[in-house]
Amino acid sequence: MHPADTTDPQPSDTAPATARASVFTLPSSAAGSEREDTIAVEAPLELRIGGRPVTVLMRTPGHDEELVTGFLFGEGVIADADDIIAFERPDADRANVLNVRLMVARRAFNLDRPFYSNSSCGICGKRSLESVELHAPAVQSSLTISRTVLTELPERLRAGQPVFARTGGVHASGLFTAAGELVAVREDVGRHNALDKLVGRALNEGQVPLSDRVLLVSGRVSYELVQKAVAAGIPVLAAVGAPSSLAVELAARFGITLIGFLRPSGMNVYANPRRVVD
To answer: Where is the active site (predicted)?
Structure first.
């Protein structure tokens, strides 16, 4: 087995993913005490295209280029990583500004996205119902995965979450093979950001569509996570939490096997159960 890409490098041009804060701990019955705690960083990333500011992404620093690549792919601005000529940090003293030079944009980016995107929502601020609609083919894949392997994935994902281990304050997205091998993990305060980083990595490696991979996300599954999985061609999306009604509807419509409440003891399969085998 090859080691999974679970490291959390901090490039010199980005801020750290964690910070220290003073906290006053109050137990239910005892005197309080003050100490230092490690917390996850949430910071704005101003995204520019061709030198022009287009949006601000609230994210955990680290893997910023993967984040932007996956984000632009999910938004339909680029078709693959080759559409990106270069990433530039226009100001060495401002790690939270990233400029992207594109070969060509597939659509005008700023028509239906406001200048701010918070870390809890990947589609908040869209200006019309039409802009939320997903235009993509159904996911085609012959992948199957045993339910025994599926029940082992949450523990394997947790083992690849160094920032969560230190802070308890970030989400994670992990890609697995059908045999349960962890391929890559990305963490972020925003669950959709973590997935964008993962998809960005796959685009850079020329691995999209990810028709032979299983995606596991921490927390719940909402519409935008299924939307991003469809765009990346991921056939199985599992979560440790619950899906929303729109997530279930979208997964059923686009051929994604959607699993919720994944535990060592079992799971709920909400859409396209044929890929889960004994």
So the answer is: 121
